[in-house]
Amino acid sequence: MISIENLSKYFKTDKQDITAVDDLSLTINEGDIFGVIGYSGAGKSTFVRLLNRLEEPSEGKIVIDDREITTLNSKQLRVARQDIGMIFQHFNLLWSRTVKDNIAFPLEIAGVPKKDRETRVEELIGLVGLTGRENAYPSQLSGGQKQRVGIARALANQPKVLLCDEATSALDPETTNAILDLLVDINKKFGLTIILITHEMHVIRKICKQVAVMEKGKVVEQGDVLELFSRPEKPVTKKFVEQVMGNQQEEDSMAQLLQRSEEGNIIRLHFVGETTNQALISQLAKRFDVDINILQGKITQTQGGAYGTLYVQINGEEEEIQKAVSFVLEQTSVEVEVIRDDG
Ligand SMILES: Nc1ncnc2c1ncn2[C@@H]1O[C@H](COP(=O)(O)OP(=O)(O)OP(=O)(O)O)[C@@H](O)[C@H]1O
Fold first, then answer.
1. CB of 1 within 8 A of CB of 64?
2. Is 3.30.70.260 the CATH classification of the domain at 251-340?
3. How far is CA 206 from CA 95, 136, 211, in A?
4. ipTM beyond 0.85?
5. In this protein, which residues make up the domain named ABC transporter (predicted)?
6. Model pLDDT for residues 4-19, shown as the tens digit of each residue
7. Distance, CA 335 to ligand 1 centroid (Å)?
């Protein structure tokens, strides 16, 4: 769907030359929610703005849906941009226009007749959950509602791609979650390809399947979100994973853990993309004659399923424990490691 080859952007200022995006190549599949994560100054905003040429590339090639964006003249670019919606951290709404007139704006520019515009605006208002607020002005809306207007406006011309530039960074955690849920919903409903840039790993965790980590204008690591959680290689990626999973070293060491619970079997359950969604611990306790005590752990949900580790103490007859462990191995994708076998 999107192919980016050797993309670079240089800025010249009085004091210095800056390479904001440095020879970046990426492929993004149709219907993906693709995350780009990096710290401030990594070049994320510049990168995403190059995709619709809000920023002119210095070098490189961008192809979106078989159309080479980088060679279009300004008239062709205006048409191509109707297929590329964008939402922003600070919403970029027109303050003198109501919700409905903000959403109608791109339709006016595209020359959609008034009657069709009204029908489409109504549809969009329902889609983003703003029914009843049609005639409000942006100043009368909460941050979450403003971003809903931004999303509706971005979707007005039925784009194939949606670019999200730190779209939830100005929102509180609860509103962030609601907006991310809306993006997932739209992605599923319309098969829209979403590229989302952020400095927050929990945003990536919650909605992306694929992620690229940016540092100093380059993609330093890239892949499936679950894989990156499991095997982060670069220090910057490890730090982002810690944002969600915490710092392993800060948790009790295995020696302390074993010391604290002096007897009993201890097993480690490692979840990588477990999607069966069963209440694993209570299932074990119900199906087998065992007692389970959770010692330590952290599990988080990703688009690819649950990720994380639980250390549990499991007590009972040896045979029952064996059956419980076999159940986990055979019926789920959770990995089991026996840390201490007391049998
Ligand atoms: N118009 C510009 N003129 C000069 N330098 C720029 C311009 N836009 C961006 N830069 C520089 O390019 C680099 C990358 O900036 P960019 O905004 O893309 O990073 P970012 O990862 O999005 O960070 P942030 O989240 O803080 O915006 C920075 O060093 C920035 O100062």
1. yes
2. yes
3. 31, 31, 12
4. yes
5. 2-241
6. 999 999 999 888 999 9
7. 42
